[in-house]
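Handoff note, outgoing to incoming analyst
You'll be picking up this chain. Sequence as last confirmed:
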Amino acid sequence: MHFLDQAKIYMSSGTGGPGAVAFRREKFIEYGGPDGGNGGKGGDIIIEAVPGLNTLIDFRYTQHFRAPRGKGGAGSNMTGAGGKDLVVRVPVGTQVLSEDKAHLLADFTTAGERRVFLRGGDGGRGNASYKTSTNRAPRQHGTGWPGKEASVWLRLKLLADVGLLGLPNAGKSTFINAVTNAQAKVGAYPFTTVRPQLGVATHNHREIVVADIPGLIAGAADGAGIGDRFLGHIERCRVLLHLIDATGDNPVKAWRTVRNELEIYGAGLIDKPEVIGLNKVDALDASEIKSITAKLKRATKCEIMPLSGAAGTGIDTVLDRLSDAIPMPEQVARDSGVVEGEWSPV
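Most recent structure output, in case you need it:
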């Protein structure tokens, strides 16, 4: 399945049905009169976040969504049928932005969240509703209120517990393949990963969702390399795992390069909990590992965790550390004050 994290779509709710112009003409009833019913309401456009999706690729082939209009009223004061609501299903983590991308209209972060995004137009009035003491046989009726329309951007920000960071060839894809069910492409050249990857690791009877994004280089915030477009996918991550290539020319510089790009990007990434992993230690001897670890520790003021995604060395220790840094679901709900299943408007 191809990955797509941005899509522009057009949505239009249904127009209300027209009211009816009708009169009673029944045998043995002395007085007739207007009995035209109202038109039905047009269908709503509803956006729903559903589990099991992690791409907006469906919106590449379907960009227009129109809800049906309401049916017209009829005699005997019968109201027309309402138009069926149209549900647009999006992945969890999808944001709805205005056409100019300047305003956030909605943010779907929980599976099952639903929002009536565009309400259908009300049905027009039938002639029975126009009857007055001075107008006993009205022939006017309402044509139905128009629906609403909007062109919006959908932007997906993957929801994950752990976000993988690092320069190209830091071994992120090898790591995510080793600990999760992902099948990321691995190659000995920069930018092997060109789109975000998502995987689920099971550790100590707990599932940890891991997101891998393309590597960052100096100047990514200005568009160098693949740029910083995909950093949005780790904005929602609870902890960052920063992998550094132990065989690189300057591991300390590599760490500072990525941290600088995070600071330039903003969105609070620089303040997220960070676990630093020194990857590819299987290619070095013990003294080299000790020397590099000491330099990184002085520069980062953090614990450095040696590991090798290819050889499987130190992976369990890293997963233990990540598990400790990720709050349990009940703790997240308690801290946020949000009741599970409750939706609060943006």
